[in-house]
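User: Fold both of these, please.

Assistant: Here is the first one.
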Amino acid sequence: MHYSIFSLARAALGGHRAWTPAWRDAQPKPEYDVVIVGGGGHGLASAYYLAKEHGLANVAVLEKSWIGSGNVGRNTTIIRSNYLLPGNIAFYERSMRLWEKLERDLNYNAMVSQRGVLNLYHSDAQRDAYARRGNAMRLCGVDAELLDARQIRKMLPFLNFDNARFPIQGGLLQRRGGTVRHDAVAWGYARGASDRGVDIVQNCEVLGFAFEKGRVAGVETTRGPIRAKKIGLAVAGNTSRLAALAGLRLPIESHVLQAFVSEALKPLIPNVVTFGAGHFYVSQSDKGGLVFGGDLDGYRSYAQRGNLPAVKDVCEGGMALMPMLGRVRLLRSWGGIMDMSMDGSPIIDTMNIPGLYLNAGWCYGGFKATPASGWCFAHLIARDEPHPAAASFRLDRFARGAILDEKGQGAQPNLH
């Protein structure tokens, strides 16, 4: 069904009984040209662009649970391209440009809201660092503005300016950044891929791999064996566990990152705000809840839940920035399993087993990278060569010493 004001009117006149499912809940076929393991944002986007840009329709996306049950539905919905290093700026800016036309492309309301992302600074050194970042962005054609305290006060008068332990001196603003409804991203890409012939297979967990003559030939699943010429892995925090089934060891660790939502409030925060003196970021959802998060829980885990010390640290950062948060009740929290690379940058590459492709190591940047990740991963699978925007995300960069140290955040980041 094509969504428009006319289809909405027809459905309303018919008592809303004519709506059809957004995508086909497909039964797995015995064989495909390409199998994407992981029904999250990256896996679904990869399948969508394989069909749309490369004409590959004999594709399946295998999800061990239900669509949207992983990290694509467990994040704080922020999109931005305010990165520093050349290998990352071009990639995330491509993602931002894809976000800007996503709803027209998918014919689906993903609630893309370019409300702006503001990173606050609290010292002269931090100001210089943000000025450098902003200049790097602008040299690559990405919008960036360095604001002073007066401009910040006019934009966000409710912040703690006068009695702050860490006085706000200014901030780096990317106006094109903002938020997107995370569930809608999964649903929109699933619908778009399904419309182009891709099979979306839910409740289908991969248990192992089949090999023939030194190359991958298929997967063993809870719904039987499925043969494939090419297999792409896009399973975020479960990447190491799945790669181990193929006998591979990767430079990735899985960590828990928590996120939180408060009770609904009247419109308060107009954009996304990050605290420069601690790891805290906050925005306000369309339902009124404040959505915020902070740092990793600090230990390796495959559990989609966190612990209380991280909750305390996040709330302390929020209180330092906005003391009025002390009067707000926390509604719920959840955890996502982050696939943390040792240099804080992703991996999109072939592997040393022919026919096996890797999409992993997204650290904090997984959700905002969804469109570009799918675009570049589809290019890699279809053409067996890296897309220029992801050329720096090779797996062998750790061996070559060509790391992209945007923010090394593994268990022992001091060792790289």
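And the second sequence with its predicted structure:
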Amino acid sequence: MESLGQVLKQIKGPSFLRKSQDIADELLRDPIVKELRAEHPEMDETRLRANLPRLYQYVNDRRNCANCPGLEKCPNDFEGHYSKLELVTQNGQLELVERKAPCSLQVAKRNADQIKRRIRSFYVDERALQEGYNEVEIMGKDRLRAPAVNQVFRYIREVKEEGLSTKGLYLFGSFGTGKTFLMSYLLHELAIVGYTGVIVYMPEFVEDLKSMFQDNQKLKDTVEVMKNCDLLIFDDIGAENLSPWVRDHVLGAILNFRMNRKPTFYTSNYDFDGLEKHLSFTSKDGEEIYKGQRLMDRILPFVDVVHLHGENQRRIRS
């Protein structure tokens, strides 16, 4: 958008003064300026004429905002912001001061960016975290899910009202019933009120840990993130191919640190008995029941169980 100075520079010859006067008169007659004067009757015409460039910017920004083409195509000089005029007293005199204020779209984007920064995902489809969430849609897709959905909603509400608990949720059920989606919803809702979260897709995470075995700093940083975030979700636990090192020295260390400190959440196709059997077996050492039980002692007492019934939504969509 051109400034008033740029517009006046295009006027040449003897008509310059007359044309500049016409622009000023037209600007003062503009309904937006009249509205401003009605709000600030103490602002006389002399003061306005002394601030024509600011008025010009103010009127153009207001007009652009009234016909907003969206944040990415914002025509204002400062994207996502508009000029705001205020009367302030400086050196005993009233002065018109211009400030840049964020529009509602910019505020919404800033809030959304802050939410994204609070959530980290390891190997989870980002679309699960970035899609819009509609509670009515979540509940309405499959009525069989209603008891589990209500339990997740209740957990979110209690954290918002009473603060973070040390107890998480263990969400289990058949394939495609929406376990990951519900946990992503929980992360998103609690990130809005300031909590940080990490969601980890276990099968790929465990595979990637093999390469981290040679990179101690990356492994240490990853484990520290998982230990210290407010909300940690192990997604699809039980589907990974465990090694003794991953089970005992990575997963065990994370859970040992978090228990009685911060809540950990799980999604799985297994109930507790099935998960214990899975955790008791590794590809290297075979069955080690006591080691599976040891890990379960760091899971079972620190979660409420949510059994998610329902149809396979992936098959319905396909």
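The chain has a mean pLDDT of 85.
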